[in-house]
Amino acid sequence: MTVPTKKGSGPFSAERRIGVLISGRGSNLQSIIDAIRVGRLDASIAVVVSNRADANGLERARDAGIEALTSVRARMLIATRYDRAIANLLQARGVGLVCLAGFMRLVGRPLLDAFPQRILNIHPSLLPSFPGLEAQRQALEHGVQVAGATVHLVTSELDGGPIVLQAAVPVLPDDTVETLSARVLIEEHRIYPESDRHRAQR
After folding, report:
1. Is-catalytic flag, 123?
2. From 123, 152, 189, 198, the catalytic residue
3. pLDDT tens across 19-75, in order?
């Protein structure tokens, strides 16, 4: 079930050149690549950047003919310099919208200032419930009957920016972290490329 919200809007259709930041397997990156390929998302991915050299998502990008870079050296910089370096890299490639797809770093002020209201994240819970890591484990430990996924704009508050789009997933009596995570991930892949279709006035 897709839940459009009254807070936020989907900026995909206004910003056609996307920069994707990843740290791992890149499955949400792949969902964006696939949506562009079939014409479900009218955009292009200008560059994919990972803060880990071993991120599988880099190969996904290269297989799709997308420039894929690793910012390992920048990881050794202090946070503000790291974010400024990433912002410069994205701006040099004409990026209009930044998508975090499993990017395991907090976004700092230089990057937020470079792309105001133009950084999206996908989180595996129905925010504002269960921000941060291990959202599905948190959901099971709290005994909720409904979990889900959220696309939101990124701010300085962890997983606290305006919500763009949500999808609900029922929690089954025999769910484990793994089974719940797998069903939530299906919804993540569906709603991230769809977020431009759900424009509600803030």
Report:
1. yes
2. 123
3. 999 999 999 999 999 999 999 999 999 999 999 999 999 999 999 999 999 986 555
